[in-house]
Amino acid sequence: MEEALIEFREVSKHYVMGDTIVKAVDLISFKIMKGEFVAIVGQSGSGKSTCMNIIGCLDVPTDGLYLINGRNVGEMNKNELSEIRNQMIGFIFQQYNLLPKLTVVENVEVPLMYAGASKSDRRRRAIEELSNVGLGEKLKHYPNQLSGGQQQRVSVARALVGNPAILLADEPTGALDSKTGREVLALFQRLHKSGRTIVLITHDNSIAATAERIIRLEDGHVVYDGPTDKEKLVHAEPTEGSAENESA
Amino acid sequence: MSLLESVELSIKNILASKLRALLTMLGIIIGVTAVILIIGLGNGVKIYMADSFKSLGTNTINVMITGRGSSSRKMTVEQMYELVAKNPKYLLRLSPSVRMTGTVKIGNETSSTTTSIGVSEDYFKIKSYTIASGRGLQYSDILDRSYVCVVGSYIAENYFANNALGKTIKIGGAYFEIIGVNSKQADNASSTTDDYIFVPYTTAARLSSTGTITNYVVEIPSVDDSSAAIKIMNDALYEIFANSNYYMVRSMGEILNTFTSMVNIMVMVLSIIAGISLVVGGIGIMNIMLVSVTERTKEIGIRKALGAKERYILTQFVIEAATTSGIGGFIGIALGYILSGIATSFIKSALQTNLPVSPTASSALMAFGISAGIGIVFGYLPAKKAAALNPIDALRNE
Questions:
Q1: Candidates B16, B306, B395; nearest CB to A101
Q2: Mind telling me how many Å the CA of B290 is from chain A's nearest CA?
């Protein structure tokens, strides 16, 4: 069996809040293989955001082992974490998080800039990636001149441009209407078919259903880890509407 | 990410909020302008002084002997000539200088401004005067104690309509024949050497009440030889008088040097005071950069998530601060030069004085360097703060 791209071995993350210790994530273990499309699902407070931060190397576990491509993230210094984020992870955020003062193409160039690519190389690859998501005509636009769906596609292009091993999407449809949201999810499925590893963080079961595997978290523990269809049968909860997206 | 790109990005950020950037730079602009102007003004004063002193002769030393009354300790003209002859390396030519007190009457007019002095035939060479018409004083005039004189160009123009040769002037009751006219020395009229009458010192001494010669002008090779020449003169005079209160040796070069160093100190003190505004400007930059870091917390978070190392964020903010203050410095330099030009023409028209306010290129370069340096120093703290932001917290920031 090939080595896991992402491996959690009894990962815990504890925060001290005043006098009490909050166990945001408690003894979680799972593996994500190359090419998988996994949704990490849970209500707010379930620990999914903490999980995402750890997977994205924005945070390190308090206890346990997190291996990315076989390398122990817990032993890395800040610079190495930055490099891992730059080279291994493609972030897609709920609020797109594009830089408002940069044009679309400049936004997509940012990860390549930190990777040390030359100016012409950066521009070429950014344009290519934007064309792939159907935004080849909007290169010189500023983010606020685009619709939400277009902005999210820019952020997908930005996530993909450095050719990272993992695409890490945090509520990617949370700020979009359902139609545009479906389009973005269709884009994800297309990317998955082309062999990308995608980790989708969401509280929304209907969105999680797009993935082929679901890891469900509750109170910092994994309560389900398995294929999407079966999970649906086990947890026949009503699907939450987008109205609950407080930050939308 | 290259330095040039960082600077480009900084300029973009600065242009995005022009008014704020301008206000941020204001302290630096004022400071640099002030420093440039002060240094320029100092240079102008130095140039002006050097010009003024040059007309008095910086390549001479002046000796004044007050003497010891009836004592036998005396320095005669012959002794003085011997002294000069013995030290050809530092003392070149000598001329006694006898100020005449008698009233000057030219025709029926009495001139109160005209100065008449008795000098030797070498005086004109010492002062680099050239005779415009007629002849200069000669050794024979000195020997004969002739009643002849050379007049300044102002006298020739004003009283004789440039036809002075052969005419007579009455000084203190004695008549002098005009044998030569000195060339024009200064642009503006009276109270300069153009309003002088030069007679043989022997004649002047005979007409004076005491008959003694107390003042000398000695030519030296250059300003740099002032100290050595003064020392020789002082030593020789001390040997005779055994007391330094009975004579005085001065050189215009020495006085100029003293003035110049005084001006230098003044310029330095004023520059330091103006430099305080640079520090204040730096604090202003630090303040705005701290605000900017807070405002751009989200951006910093995004950049970190996309793989920016702390080093990049730090560099970015430091360069932005340095660029801001560098641009401020540049504007300050430009403003300083413009104001210098205005000041020069203002001084010229208002005071009729040629005092060129001339900032030096090195001072401009220094001002620019200091302002950029201030940006780096005062930008470092906010940049450090930005670089140390936790990416999760920064991303959560709205």
A1: B16
A2: 19
Give the separation between CA B277 and CA B32, rounded to whole angstroms. 8
User: Would an 8 Å CB–CB cutoff place B306 in contact with chain A?
Assistant: yes
Measured between beta carbons, which residues in chain B are less than 8 angstroms from residue A93? Answer: 395
Which residue is closest to B4 within chain A, CA to CA? A119
Please choose, from the candidates B72, B39, B63, the residue with its C-alpha nearest in 3D space to the C-alpha of residue B126.
B63
User: How many angstroms from the chain centroid is the CA of residue A90?
Assistant: 7
Which residues of chain B make contact with A101, given a CB cutoff of 8 A? 12-13, 16
Contacts of A114 in chain B (CB under 8 A): 1, 303, 306-309, 312
* Domain ranges within chain B, ordered by starting residue: 3-54+258-396, 59-251
**Residue type for B283, please?**
I
d(Cα A157, Cα B185) in Å, to the nearest integer? 82
A142 interfacial to chain B (CB closer than 8 Å) = no
Q: Looking at this protein, which amino acid is placed at residue A188?
A: F
- 3 state DSSP class of B341: helix
- How many other C-beta atoms lie within 10 A of the C-beta of residue B130? 10
Sign of CA dihedral B252, B256, B262, B265: negative
Q: What ipTM did this prediction achieve?
A: 0.89
* pLDDT beneath 50, residues of chain A: 236, 238-248
CA distance B117 to B126: 15
- Nearest CB to A79 within list B299, B309, B395: B309
Of B298, B311, B392, the CB nearest to A58: B392
| Residue B94 · residue B218 · CB < 8 Å | yes
pTM for the model: 0.72
Nearest Cα of chain A lies from the Cα of B308 at a distance, in angstroms, of 6
pLDDT at position B70: 58
The number of beta carbons lying within 10 Å of the beta carbon of residue B392 is 18
Burial (Cβ within 10 Å: 0-12, 13-18, ≥19) of residue B343? middle
Please report the pLDDT score of residue B251 as a whole number.
Answer: 85
Per domain, the residue ranges of chain A are 6-244
Q: Is A215 exposed, middle or buried (CB count within 10 Å of its CB: 0-12, 13-18, 19+)?
A: buried
Report the pLDDT value the prediction gives residue B177, as an integer from 0 to 100. Answer: 93
User: Do B307 and A101 lie within an 8 Å CB cutoff?
Assistant: no
3-state secondary structure of A117: coil
Q: How far apart are CA B103 and CA B217, in angstroms?
A: 24
Below-70 pLDDT ranges, chain B: 1, 68-72, 187-191
Contacts of B50 (CB under 8 A, 6+ apart): B58, B256, B260
pLDDT of A247: 41
DSSP symbol at B233: H
CATH of A6-244 given 3.40.50.300, 3.40.190.10, 3.60.40.10, 3.90.1150.10: 3.40.50.300
